[in-house]
Design brief:
Radius of gyration: 31 Å
Number of strands: 0
Oligomer: single chain
Low-confidence stretches: none
Number of domains: 2
Shape: elongated
Mean pLDDT: 86
Strand content: under 5%
Order of helices and strands: HHHH
Distance between the termini: 81 Å
Length: 117
């Protein structure tokens, strides 16, 4: 977002970032229509394109939130737990593959016969 005309050490304009609360405050003030939009833009030091972007973000956020289904949210597993479980699964898959090889060797030794003899 554009904002105040502060400059860095090289003389370039610095970008000013607004918090979500500030953006929502600007959005509500513009929507109320009590003050001219131009006055709000000048006071906040933003351009009309910045206001349009804020309005778009508010709309997207509202649609996303309103489209969420009620009920329990899917749980996120911490990255450490995920990695631990992944390693555990890989170890068990290797052990299963080893067991399958052993079983194949034993079946060959008994000519594919049954264990019930």
């Amino acid at each position: 977002m554009s904002g105040e005309e502060s400059r860095d050490s090289k003389g370039k304009k610095k970008r000013r970032f607004f918090s979500a609360e500030k953006k929502y405050q600007i959005f509500l003030e513009a929507q109320r229509g009590e003050k001219p939009v131009g006055e709000i833009l000048r006071r906040e030091g933003i351009y009309s394109t910045d206001l349009a972007r804020i309005q778009k973000q508010v709309k997207e956020g509202a649609l996303e939130r309103l489209s969420a289904r009620p009920g329990a949210k899917p749980k996120m597993v911490p990255a450490e737990d995920y990695e631990t479980l992944k390693r555990e699964l890989e170890e068990k898959e290797r052990a299963l593959a080893d067991q399958a090889v052993e079983l194949a060797v034993l079946r060959k030794k008994t000519n594919g016969g049954s264990w019930d003899r």
